[in-house]
């Protein structure tokens, strides 16, 4: 749990009382590889911090054509945040791609933290901002970078984890076919 406290203290000091209040509402949950954290049609009830692992967000189609639109890594927040905020069912799945450990706070507990701690709103704001910036960077990347640039950036930012993500998911995330990704990977390997 110290990992999440250190993350928040980059933005705001937490009194021991605020930290105790917040951390007493966190649950630590482990999910095996390939398990769904949230299934399309369910309402997201948690804002989670990834202590360990790798998570994929995707719109389910037939198994070969799922539309992967985001990944979250260790020390990131993870949530079907639109569902969490609106209390409406999600239209996408959230899946653990590796064995994953989450530190989770429920929607109702987070509302309580907002009301009863000095740092609660700062904690919530930074978690929300982190999720928003991840989505904004993804949107800008899709509009301004080539598929090869997006692949190179993923490789530079998360080299170890890229090896753990099945290529078909990376191809979907980049917006190309697995065959086109294979050609990009050959070019990148030839250049490196």
From TrEMBL:
What the entry lists under InterPro entries is as follows:
cNMP-bd_dom, cNMP-bd_dom_sf, RmlC-like_jellyroll
SUPFAM superfamilies given for it? cAMP-binding domain-like
CDD domains tied to this protein? CAP_ED
Q: Which PROSITE patterns match?
A: CNMP_BINDING_3 (PS50042)
Question: Can you give the residue ranges of the Cyclic nucleotide-binding domain?
Answer: 10-118
From the record, give the transmembrane residue ranges.
Answer: none
Q: Which Pfam families match?
A: cNMP_binding
Superkingdom, taxonomy of origin: Bacteria
Q: What is this protein called?
A: Crp/Fnr family transcriptional regulator
Which species? Chitinophaga caseinilytica
């Amino acid at each position: 749990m110290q990992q999440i406290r250190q993350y928040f203290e980059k933005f705001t000091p937490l009194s021991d009382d605020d930290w105790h209040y917040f951390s007493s509402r966190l649950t630590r949950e482990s999910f095996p590889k390939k398990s769904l954290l949230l299934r399309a049609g369910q309402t997201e009830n948690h804002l989670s911090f990834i202590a360990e692992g790798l998570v994929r967000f995707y719109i389910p189609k037939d198994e070969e054509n799922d539309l992967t639109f985001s990944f979250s890594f260790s020390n990131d927040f993870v949530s079907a945040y639109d569902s969490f905020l609106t209390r409406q069912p999600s239209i996408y799945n959230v899946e653990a791609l590796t064995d994953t450990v989450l530190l989770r706070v429920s929607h109702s507990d987070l509302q309580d933290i907002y009301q009863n701690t000095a740092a609660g709103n700062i904690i919530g704001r930074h978690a929300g901002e982190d999720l928003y910036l991840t989505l904004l960077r993804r949107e800008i990347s899709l509009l301004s970078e080539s598929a090869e640039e997006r692949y190179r950036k993923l490789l530079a930012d998360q080299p170890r984890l890229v090896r753990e993500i099945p290529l078909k998911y990376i191809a979907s995330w980049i917006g190309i076919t697995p065959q086109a990704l294979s050609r990009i990977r050959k070019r990148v390997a030839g250049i490196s």
